[in-house]
Design brief:
Elements (H helix, E strand, L loop, with lengths): L11 E5 L28 H14 L4 E5 L9 H9 L6 E6 L4 H11 L3 E5 L5 H8 L4 H14 L5 E4 L10 H11 L2 E5 L18 H8 L5 E3 L11 E5 L5 E5 L12 E4 L4 E3 L8 E2 L1 H4 L5 H17 L19 H4 L2
Parallel strand pairs: 1-2, 1-10, 2-3, 3-4, 4-5, 5-6, 6-9
Antiparallel strand pairs: 7-8, 8-9, 10-11, 11-12
Helix pairs in contact: 1-2, 2-3, 3-5
């Protein structure tokens, strides 16, 4: 197992397939983009599948989520999903995407073995979408969501970040829209993972702010039917059900004590926490010469050592907290 010194076991693997993205969200990266990873630094499709196979068959991983950047930009995505779906034991497979391109890929991804999707959408207003993402692509995202639902990639989850002065008043409208379309909406606090390092705690919309806004139009009751466990979202029953909404308070309501995640970047680095400043290089081990079985053993050793060193929490409440050098697009959501 991938266990740490605090008894937490990592069973959920987040795999970044690329650091590139076709949006330029203000809370993620500058308008001109970033210096992308060179192709030689990226893991190949075979290397990605090999590391996932090791994680699933040797290290107890049961869930695999593909992220980015924007994972739909990875040319080999469908083939990777297909090969991972054929592993035994078969992990649950999901995808976090901005939804652009999902309308033309939802069916083929479902056929390849993808189980469900999370789609990032912060607003229903075209002008606000353009201001937030610096692209005029709202209709493409909503079309992608509809295609995912038709393809059976359910539950379709929608991830929303509220930003002061842009979309902070949209929480009730977004929830009403999500309930109408049978999507599961989840509000996520803005985190200090922007490339510009411009995040400020004093300006963020908190989980408490979101709940207060939602309660101006909806009755919310905490979901009692299941244990939250390692799930990052606190879930609330809306107007007596069956609709639900989630709120992820990574900053003000951290869930580090039950974290079950391990992360693999597009260039083959293991991160034991989203906010970690240290990484462990699996790519170098994977590309070393030697018997393949011995190489796999070295990957197992390095991965276990990386997780054993995991800190008890993210450190966001520590005055000495330093934002990771990598932004979210290079880490993987």
């Amino acid at each position: 197992m991938l266990i740490d010194t605090h008894g937490r076991v990592a069973t959920d693997l987040r795999v970044s397939l690329t650091d590139r993205c076709n949006l330029r969200c203000t809370y993620c990266m500058p308008e001109e983009g970033l210096a992308w990873l060179a192709k030689s630094e990226l893991l190949t499709d075979d290397e990605i599948v090999r590391l996932i196979r090791i994680a699933v068959t040797r290290l107890g991983v049961t869930e695999v989520r593909f992220t980015g950047g924007e994972p739909l930009l990875r040319p080999g995505l469908v083939g990777i999903v297909d090969r991972v779906a054929r592993l035994a034991p078969r992990p649950r497979i999901s995808l976090t995407t901005n939804g652009i391109g999902l309308a033309r890929t939802a069916d083929v991804l479902r056929e390849a073995g993808l189980d469900r999707v999370n789609v990032s959408l912060d607003t229903l207003r075209p002008e606000v979408f353009k201001a937030l993402t610096r692209r005029d692509r709202l209709s493409d995202v909503t079309a992608g969501l509809a295609a995912a639902s038709r393809a059976g990639l359910v539950p379709v989850k929608v991830n929303t970040v509220l930003m002061p002065g842009l979309n902070e008043d949209e929480a009730p409208d977004l929830l009403a829209w999500a309930l109408d379309h049978d999507y599961e909406l989840r509000f996520i606090e803005q985190m200090p993972l922007d490339a510009q390092h411009g995040w400020q705690r004093t300006g963020m919309i908190t989980a408490g702010d979101v709940l207060a806004s939602l309660r101006t139009r909806f009755a919310l009751e905490p979901e009692q039917s299941q244990e939250r466990g390692s799930a990052p979202a606190e879930r609330w029953i809306v107007n007596g059900g069956p609709g639900r909404v989630g709120v992820i308070g990574s900053v003000t309501r951290p869930f580090c004590a039950a974290c079950d995640r391990t992360r693999l970047t597009a260039d083959g680095q293991v991160r034991n926490c989203l906010f970690a400043r240290e990484e462990t290089d699996l790519r170098a081990a994977l590309r070393s010469e030697g018997d393949p079985a011995h190489v796999d053993e070295e990957v197992v050793r390095l991965w276990r050592a990386a997780m054993w060193a995991k800190k008890p929490g993210s450190g966001l409440d520590d005055p000495s907290f330093l934002q990771p050098d990598r932004p979210m697009s290079a880490i993987g959501g």
